[in-house]
Amino acid sequence: MKFLKFHILPVFILLFTLVNCQNVPGGSKMVCYYNSTSFIREGLGKLIINDLEPALQFCTHLVYGWVGINAETNKLESLNPNLDLDQGKGHFRVITSLKRKYPAVKFLLSVGGFQDPTEEDTNKYLTLLESSAARISFINSAHTLVKTYDFDGLDLSWQFPPNKPKKKHSSIGKLWKGFKKIFTGDAILDEKAEEHKEEFVALVRELKNAFRHEGYILSLTVLPNVNSSLFYDVPALINNIDFVNLAAFDFHTPLRYPKEADYPAPLYELNDRHPEHNVNFQVQYWLGLHCPATKINVGVPTYGRVWQMTSDSGLTGHPPVADTEHEAPPGLQSHTSGLYSWPEVCSKLPNPSNAHLKGEDAPVRKVGDPTKRFGSYAYRVADDDGKYGLWIGYEDPDTAGNKAGYVRAKGLGGLALFDLSYDDFRGSCSGDKFPILRAAKFRL
Fold first, then answer.
1. 18, part of any domain
2. pTM (2 decimals)?
3. Which of 35, 87, 214, 343 lies most in the core, judged by the most C-beta atoms within 10 Å?
């Protein structure tokens, strides 16, 4: 009896702790982006609610993307009313009704995300900032939309102009470029960038004030290749932002660099690459401007970028790979040129079902990342006729886990997964559903 009395209290405390750790989200955030158009996607890429639900046990936040801005009224509006607002079965209400089943998850509505078309000669995301009346119209409509459909807040995936692709230069080329910049300056993305930076601070402050009474969350997503130094006044913004998601990927894509394949989302800088084209640089920039580490979430893609290798691309596949020929054709799930979802990548890695296939169905050769710094890639050398060559730079459960380890080591807020529909939500690769999400959450 004495033995039992001595040990029963520690055992009870241990069991109590384990149960509560499973029911209460940890300190690290797992922000999951849900592209609502995947619900109406054709074929294997169609993500229905029953497929989505298993992910919610791993997410602390679900970001519903995307809504847009009406250029005439400056109001927030659905980009797909038939899906989002359909009477009685609109997707807004279907998604937020999941709060009853997953009360620990916060559901946010996201605006922009490079999904909202803009006119060629104007950018409504910039012109809206210039007028206080336009900002008020936007804020009132945002508050109404969030409140009406029971979202927990709003995510600003603001569509600032992305950087132009950068050319690589030799030592002489760098010297000449530096000399030329004295006269020409950098490429101008926005002639009124400083004004827009200040006006965006005003929008965020006014929006947070409108949300404060009801405790709505306001988050910020820095989209791929958007220059933070140009558009975000970090010290002025951060007190009115609950957290920021850095979409630190797609630095190198077939669309931006069609003639050269390279790592799309390295964790650290590589030799002879642009120093800002990596996760660590983006994180250190925000930290250097006194953004609290716990407010920074590192973006992780669930897909790979795919180039076509040619006869001139060489045999090794070691990046950077020159003389590629733009993006590869779309896969059966993603339906997007130059992009493979994780299950599409996985299906092309060597396995018993493709070991003896030839041509466009032949397996690719996988090259892992023992350094845990740059990412995985796979390739298939072009045949004698210059056909069927592929180079894929991709994220997988291992590399996502490495980025989760980085987040922990730096004391950051968590991860942001872009997006659930490109993870293996059917479990076709390893049998586990959402393997990238699982691996990242486990490491957090």
1. no
2. 0.90
3. 343
